[in-house]
């Protein structure tokens, strides 16, 4: 039900975006300002990307099936990449038009109305963007977060636009309008590239360093003495779902039933650390004589030597495909 609420939130965001688009083009029609046109063109991208994001989020909510054993969450990366590509194209168009108009006569007028309408649309985009970013981070949804960051970037652009148009209105130097548009064109291009880069990383299963670091910190704090060692950890993100592979070293003398109970405890602990669904594939390794050096298990009758030190798990040492020895 919570995810359905997030779907509705995207729908509301899309409807509000359509109204803001009308206001922005109205401001451009009143002022003939290239700087305001950049804002309006980006809003077209907001609408198109918003429609795709809404559909993508709907698909991502579908449960696993025979054809998609890991779920449908990957489509969120495609959505973010599509949005990034559109933003990139919009930035290039803005850059071209503004550069062209810099060498040709271009007058702007009625900037007071442009300032008022830009302030209204910027305020709404900032509030809506922050809501989407928060919800996106809460459920680890790149679609919601990307949409929110786009709207927030749009709001920041509006703030800069207000400042720039204010200078144009005071100085009556229309050329500044094109310079402002060029600056924002570059910023928009950078925003689009960032989204595109992140989506490609997700599609290629690139490690999410921040997410993995959060996991390592949490699992280290909840570590049990039976978990002698952990290595070859890999975490993959599928939309709002996570998939974790790892090797867990247990005492060699544990029978199948005991090992299963420890594994179940490990899985329950990991799932309890995440607010989002997580699937685990845990491979159990038996401890070896050399493991005694790092083993923190108390009252072990099979211990061959005293523990020398306790190895603190970090991103660097648990992702390596080898057991820890010292």
From the structure above, extract its key features.
elongated, Alpha-Beta Plaits, Alpha-lytic protease prodomain-like, 9 helices, 326 residues, single chain, mainly alpha, 2 domains
Describe the protein's architecture and organization.
With 326 residues, the chain is mainly α. It has 2 domains: 2-203, Cation efflux protein transmembrane domain (Alpha-lytic protease prodomain-like, Up-down Bundle), CATH 1.20.1510.10; 209-318, Alpha-Beta Plaits, CATH 3.30.70.1350. It is 64% helix and 9% strand. The protein has 9 helices and 3 strands, in the order αααααααββαβα. It has helices spanning 2-31, 34-60, 75-102, 111-139, 142-171, 175-203, 209-221, 256-273, 315-318, and strands at residues 229-238, 241-250, 278-286. A 3-stranded mixed sheet has the order 1-2-3, with helices on one face. Helix 1 (2-31) runs antiparallel to helix 4, helix 2 (34-60) runs antiparallel to helix 3 (75-102) and helix 2 packs parallel to helix 6 (175-203). The protein is elongated and about 90 Å long. The protein starts with a helix and ends in an 8-residue tail after the last helix.
Compact description:
This protein is mainly α and 326 residues long. Helix content is 64%, strand content 9%.
Structural class from helices and strands?
mainly alpha
Helix count from the secondary structure assignment: 9
Specify the overall morphology: elongated
Radius of gyration based on Cα positions? 26 Å
- Largest beta sheet: what is the strand line-up? 1-2-3
Q: Termini distance?
A: 48 Å
Query: What is the domain tally?
Result: 2
By CATH, the topology of the largest domain is Alpha-lytic protease prodomain-like
Task: List how many beta strands DSSP finds.
Answer: 3
Task: Quickly name the level 1 CATH class of the largest domain.
Answer: Mainly Alpha
CATH architecture descriptor text of the largest domain: Up-down Bundle
Give the % helix.
55-70%
Largest sheet, described in full? 3 strands, mixed
Low-confidence stretches: none
* Fraction of residues in β-strands: 5-15%
